[in-house]
């Protein structure tokens, strides 16, 4: 992984803070983005003392259009930034029938809109230089949408599909794009009470998850599922989906619909 500057969103705690730590110790300078400037500065002070890298802290709420636009412009204009970690995001509890519309809109803004626009902001510049990295934090719920609430898995399915499309477009230009699909990870997305009800063997520590994700990046994986024992299982899933492609579009409906005509 060549030395460059990484911009990390949601960097004040959890997975984002661990990415900041690991990237700093790999010698990368950082631009850290989160709402809590005090937490960012405390993290930056520690990492600068430990790793001797340059770290800039930017307070921004990426669900706010003005803040998102400010970070977009930074990615477009700052040629030193060669890596992006799209980590900021939120989840929700409960079903769609009882959901608050404002919370749903905020989740779309953070999990979908911000990931899209920040990736787009850096993509052209990285493609021109023929290098760089975009890491998008998705979730295993992208593969099991019926398993949890309605919207969160859908947003993470978008992140996975978007990352794969980016890889197809930008990979030939020399840009690495990785979608990371964590399972249950000890972060603020889960309360301690929720985690206590789960078998310990099902819960991964954020540090362990990020280390596995970066190992996957080093291996050239475009999709990394840290807890999956054998990636051949995922590759078989992808091949099964690809076998559908020739039959997904045609001039006539399938014979099973003949009675409906």
Automatic annotation (TrEMBL):
Gene3D superfamilies, A to Z: NAD(P)-binding Rossmann-like Domain
User: What is any Pfam family matched here?
Assistant: adh_short
Alphabetized, the UniProt keywords read:
Oxidoreductase
Reading the lineage from the top rank, the first entry is Bacteria
Q: Which residues form the Ketoreductase domain?
A: 4-193
The yes or no answer to whether the keyword Oxidoreductase is present is yes
Per its UniProt record, what InterPro entries does this chain match? KR_dom, NAD(P)-bd_dom_sf, Sc_DH/Rdtase_CS, SDR_fam
Q: Which SMART domains match?
A: PKS_KR
List the EC numbers from the record.
1.1.1.298, 1.1.1.381
SUPFAM superfamilies xref list? NAD(P)-binding Rossmann-fold domains (SSF51735)
Catalytic activity as recorded in UniProt: L-allo-threonine + NADP(+) = aminoacetone + CO2 + NADPH; 3-hydroxypropanoate + NADP(+) = 3-oxopropanoate + NADPH + H(+)
Specify whether Oxidoreductase is a keyword of the entry: yes
**Protein function:** NADP-dependent dehydrogenase with broad substrate specificity acting on 3-hydroxy acids. Catalyzes the NADP-dependent oxidation of L-allo-threonine to L-2-amino-3-keto-butyrate, which is spontaneously decarboxylated into aminoacetone. Also acts on D-threonine, L-serine, D-serine, D-3-hydroxyisobutyrate, L-3-hydroxyisobutyrate, D-glycerate and L-glycerate. Able to catalyze the reduction of the malonic semialdehyde to 3-hydroxypropionic acid.
UniProt-listed PANTHER family? NADP-DEPENDENT 3-HYDROXY ACID DEHYDROGENASE YDFG, VERY-LONG-CHAIN 3-OXOOACYL-COA REDUCTASE
The record's comment on protein family reads: Belongs to the short-chain dehydrogenases/reductases (SDR) family.
Q: What name appears for this protein in its UniProt entry?
A: NADP-dependent 3-hydroxy acid dehydrogenase YdfG
Taxonomy of origin reads: Bacteria, Pseudomonadati, Pseudomonadota, Alphaproteobacteria, Sphingomonadales
